[in-house]
UniProtKB/TrEMBL annotation:
Identification of the protein by name: Isoleucine--tRNA ligase, mitochondrial
EC number annotated for this UniProt entry: 6.1.1.5
Keyword Transmembrane: no
GO MF, one example: isoleucine-tRNA ligase activity
Length: 1050
């Protein structure tokens, strides 16, 4: 049986105003789809239509904000890198919607290129076709390859789009662009045509990076580097011939048997050797190896010691002091791999020769090296590369015995074949070989080594638009700033861009080749491209491959002779680089407000977008002279395609390693949304049948699934300007924060749902107006003050694209200011206080609710949608949706809010509060008290305090202070009065803690005086309704509760 006391207590509890909300503890999958639709498609189309209101005058029409999507490759499943990219973009877009902008975000996909072609071919292979990857399965026709690749890309686009939408990424999905769309291809071809007309595209036989495994040329952006590549390096000697004058000058040299020693890490390039280079200022010597005393060897003097160490032989100097400048032009040599009767080759000077490695004499093969090519072009020595598309020697590699090397893969058997041959012929030309480990370029897709090989390719002339591009970059806002130097250096260091690829899956290079002259000459100009574009418009782009080779429709009438269509396709960076053509021109600035991608795009998309965009604006004269626009008037300035360029890092596992399939550390976005990377939830025992057996038998563990917001909050909490680490501790913190948000909103929804006479409107404007009209208690002023500070801070961070700082501020605010402090002080006021108490608290909490919704809307849109769903209908009906309102940081001109004075008073209050909590802890440790209400506080001030403190800690505020500190009573006493007060009170126990009072209001660093708090037992009785110890006698209500209960009864 219940005792009467208990019974009474239970009765009083029923008169309390306890918040009730059934807001769930975690998202319910059944409703998530609905919320997702509302916060993505619905919100996006709402802001588009609402803000395109035809009744709007031009001047009142909102500003547009364009985030131009860098298209991801349409191959493979989504990973956390995609999430970092797409969600960061979404944070930007959502914040801008909250700023009242009309946001345009059209997602795109990069659909052409080798990666997709290889995948499509692989799929074909798996379904029956034989042979290895890439080129090897080339028994498929180009058309079949294109069809397979198109289907694969289309399938992947659909899958990835579904994934992006599940992350609550908002955009114009219905109009997503694909680089394989006809419309896109035509725009791209028109940019290409303009570049051809301005003389920016040319064809040349010169060395390019060539991937034997893919059978195509590659741009630098398509290379990766293997840090541990091993190569066989060799010291090789070539027999030297000297002019008579030179012979006379150095008589000690055995001219009949003098060799130049060169060093190479690619012996397979020796058949293509055309020149040996020395440096004019370096000193060279003739040395002998004791084993071959007659053989004189020419090497750089400073390299002798190194050579001895590698060859393991002592080298004796015959003569030294031969300057490079003397040798250049006076010495020639013979390459034993060339025809016996071939003319000797020159020894020349080259600036890049140094004595940092090798022998100080450099083997030059203009067909296999960029520097080599440049040096030789000046001397009119043509490039020569006896290597085919698959990286195998042709019969030209050894003209005297064409069959010997033909068909050997240069990188595998080629090196040994060449070295073996040079060792085996009459004289041994190899002095020594050794294996070296060095950094070597590999194909970014096949991961196989590439070679440098001269072929005929199409190039864009970057030199012609370089200074215009550099000028345009000056206008760009870079985040982080380091991106500027990085992009500048890439542009600066580039003179050409190889844009042709020998693959089928791409946009054709619209060139024709003449067949009746036997020279296979290329023809490509504006009118030819214009004609070809018209045919494509009519027949579709696949007709370029399917029409008969000599179909006359493709050949413009003005051309004489017979022509066929070319087979090259364009570099995919050219495809995606021209995506700015989708954006409407803006008179007052770049077409896009923001481009945002990973740092690897400085080499890729950022660069190709800038170059093509600048090429379109530059005039032919500027291109020819390689100059920028000189005029500084705004309409003449070369514009970059982006106003702000944001780069993000990569995602790493918690040990800081890159994620890769081979390491097995790849994290999928689904795992973050389902919570399966965190320990499973503990099952609650079911009442009645709960036993441990059941738990063990439960087959499926359940996880803390927080849905898309978990993935989004992880992204928003990450400093994306660096590489982003992801692992269990971070994900745990993310889920914890999300639960904190939910608990906070649940409580707020409960309190805001309490029926209080006078709490008539939930609309933010009305709430603001009511606050302005009323007296605001100190604690509420503090809460509003902090809200204003935090809201402004978060707004500033979001504006600077520093979402992680905003989220960090917000998390601290929710945990410390709201949950641990303000909400604690409010509980008694709301649950047990008068109507006036409750009403004023509800108004302040209403403002906080709105502000929280607006601050969190970009980050956790699904949560905000869910919260909105749970707002009581009558209140919702007369308010705007928080994600559709313009968010201006809270700033209300009410007493002291935002003032320095209040700031300082909060500091004082914190000091006193900290002291009280410390004293209470000691009392608890000695089992003197439990809840804070089981104590009262004496605040003892030193004799003189500043006005600010006096205004805060004084007799008239004692009741308010008790509420703030959540204790049953506060007495403020002056220092001298403390002893008297204590004597009068004679408490059963007391615990004292000091705190600092600052003597001046200006600075807390100037003189402080010490006050103290005394925590003592309360001297009244526990009120059975509010549990504060303020009742006049046992089991009686306190005065406040008496009045409040009476008020409710009326
Ligand atoms: Zn009470």
């Amino acid at each position: 049986m219940l005792t009467p006391t208990r019974f009474l207590r239970a009765q009083w509890t029923s008169t309390l105003h306890l918040p009730k909300s059934a807001f769930p503890a975690r998202p319910t999958p059944a409703s998530t789809a609905l919320y997702l639709k509302r916060c993505t498609d619905d919100l996006y189309s709402w802001q588009q239509s609402k803000r395109y209101d035809p009744n709007c005058t031009t001047s009142s029409r909102p500003e547009t904000f364009v985030l131009h999507d860098g298209p991801p490759y349409a191959n493979g499943p989504l990973h956390v890198g995609h999430a970092l990219n797409k969600i960061t973009k979404d944070l930007v877009c959502r914040f801008q919607v909250g700023q009242g902008k009309l946001v345009n975000y059209i997602p795109g996909w990069d659909c052409h290129g080798l990666p997709i072609e290889i995948k499509a071919l692989q799929a074909q292979k798996n379904s029956g076709a034989e042979d290895g990857h890439g080129k090897a399965v080339s028994r498929l026709s180009a058309v079949q390859v294109r069809e397979a690749a198109r289907q694969l890309a289309a399938r992947t686009v659909r899958k990835q789009m579904d994934g992006f939408k599940e992350w609550a990424v908002m955009g114009d999905w219905g109009n997503a662009y694909k680089t394989m769309d006809k419309d896109f291809e035509m725009r791209q071809l028109s940019v290409f045509k303009e570049m051809v007309e301005k003389g920016l595209i040319y064809r040349q036989y010169k060395p390019v990076y060539w991937s034997p495994s893919s059978g195509t040329a590659l741009a630098e952006a398509e290379l990766e580097y293997d840090e541990n590549h091993t190569s066989t390096a060799a010291f090789v000697r070539f027999p030297v011939q000297a002019s008579k004058a030179f012979r006379g000058e150095f008589q000690s040299i055995n001219w009949e048997d003098l060799s130049a020693v060169i060093w190479t890490t690619t012996p397979w390039t020796l058949p293509a050797n055309k020149v040996i280079a020395v440096h004019k200022d370096m000193d060279y010597s003739v040395v002998v190896i004791s084993e071959m005393p007659k053989s004189h060897l020419l090497v750089a003097t400073s390299r002798i010691e190194y050579l001895e160490s590698i060859l393991g032989q002592k080298l004796d100097t015959v003569t030294s002091g031969i300057l490079g400048s003397k040798m250049a032009g006076n010495l020639k040599y013979r390459n034993p791999l060339h025809r016996r009767n071939a003319k000797p080759h020159p020894i020349i000077h080259a600036d890049f020769v140094s004595d940092a490695s090798g022998s100080g004499l450099v083997h030059i093969a203009p067909g296999h090296g960029m520097d080599d090519y440049n040096v030789c072009s000046e001397l009119s020595i043509p490039a020569f590369a006896p290597v085919d598309d698959q990286g195998r020697f042709t019969d030209a590699a050894l003209p005297d015995q064409p069959d010997l090397f033909q068909g050997l893969s240069v990188q595998d058997e080629g090196t040994n074949a060449i070295l073996g041959y040079l060792k085996g012929i009459d004289t041994d030309y190899i002095l020594g070989t050794h294996v070296i480990k060095h950094k070597y370029p590999i194909d970014w897709r096949t991961k196989q080594p590439v070679i440098v090989r001269a072929t005929e390719q199409w190039f864009a002339n970057v030199d012609g638009i370089k200074s215009g591009s550099m000028q345009a970059l000056e206008e760009v806002n870079f985040i982080p700033e380091s991106g500027k130097v990085r992009l500048q250096s890439f542009i600066e260091g580039r003179s050409q861009w190889c844009i042709s690829r020998q693959r089928a899956w791409g946009v054709p290079i619209p060139a024709l080749y003449r067949t009746d002259t036997g020279k296979h000459e290329a023809a490509m100009d504006g009118s030819i491209i214009g004609h070809i574009m018209k045919v494509i418009e009519k027949r579709g782009i696949d007709a370029w491959w399917t029409d008969p080779e000599d179909d006359p429709a493709w050949i413009p009438e003005h051309l004489e002779g017979s022509y066929v269509r070319g087979k090259d396709t364009m570099d995919v960076w050219f495809d995606s680089g021209t995506s700015w053509t989708l954006l409407p021109e803006k008179s007052n600035g770049p077409v896009a407000d923001v481009y945002l991608e990973g740092t690897d795009q400085h080499r890729g998309w950022f660069q190709s977008s800038l170059l093509t965009h600048v090429a379109r604006q530059a005039t032919s004269e500027q291109v020819a002279q390689g100059i920028a626009h000189q005029s500084q008037t705004s309409d003449n300035k070369i514009k970059p395609p982006f106003r702000t360029l944001i780069t993000h890092g990569f995602t790493l596992d918690q040990d800081g390693r890159k994620m890769s399939k081979s390491l097995g550390n790849v994290i999928s976005p689904d795992e973050i949304m389902s919570g399966s990377l965190l320990p499973p939830l503990k099952h609650k025992k079911q009442k009645g049948k709960g036993n441990s057996k059941n738990e063990i038998n439960d087959p499926k563990p359940t996880y803390d699934a927080m849905g898309p917001d978990a993935l989004r909050l992880w992204v928003a909490s990450s400093d994306y300007t660096k590489d982003v680490v992801i692992g269990q501790p971070i994900l745990q913190a993310v889920n914890t924060a999300l639960h904190k948000y939910r608990v906070t909103f649940k409580w707020l929804l409960g309190v805001l749902g309490l029926q209080t006479p006078g709490f008539d409107s939930f609309d933010l404007r009305t709430l603001h107006a009511r606050l302005l009209d009323s007296e605001i208690p100190l604690i509420d002023r503090i809460a509003l003050h902090r809200l204003a500070q935090v809201s402004k801070e978060v707004h500033t961070h979001y504006t600077a694209y520093e979402f992680f700082r905003g989220v960090n501020t917000l998390n601290k605010y929710i945990a410390h200011d709201l949950s641990a402090f303000y909400f604690e002080t409010l509980k008694d006021r709301i649950y047990a206080g008068s109507i006036t108490d409750r009403l004023s608290a509800q108004r302040v909490l209403g403002v906080i609710f709105w502000e929280l919704c607006q601050m969190l809307a970009p980050v956790c849109p699904v949560l905000i949608e869910e919260v909105w769903e749970w707002v009581p209908k009558p209140m919702k009906d007369i308010s705007e949706h928080p994600a559709r309102m313009v968010w201006t940081p809270f700033d209300l001109p009410v007493a002291d809010v935002g003032s320095q004075k209040l700031n300082r008073q909060i500091e004082v209050l914190n000091e006193v509060h900290t002291a009280i909590k410390a004293a209470q802890e000691r009392a608890r440790a000695e089992k003197k008290m439990g809840s804070g209400l089981e104590s009262s506080v004496l605040i003892s001030l030193p004799g003189q305090v500043n006005g600010l403190t006096a205004d805060l800690l004084n007799k008239s505020r004692e009741e308010e202070l008790a509420g703030i500190f959540v204790v049953s009573g506060v007495s403020v006493v002056e220092d001298e009065g403390l002893e008297t007060t204590l004597k009068e009170l004679n408490p059963a126990w007391n615990f004292e803690e000091p705190f600092d009072i600052h003597a001046t209001e200006e600075s807390k660093h100037v003189k402080t005086r010490t006050g103290s708090v005394l925590v003592v037992p309360p001297n009244q009785h526990k009120c059975p309704r509010c549990w504060r110890f303020v009742a006049p006698e046992p089991e009686a209500l306190c005065q406040r509760c008496d009045e409040a209960a009476e008020e409710d009864r009326r």
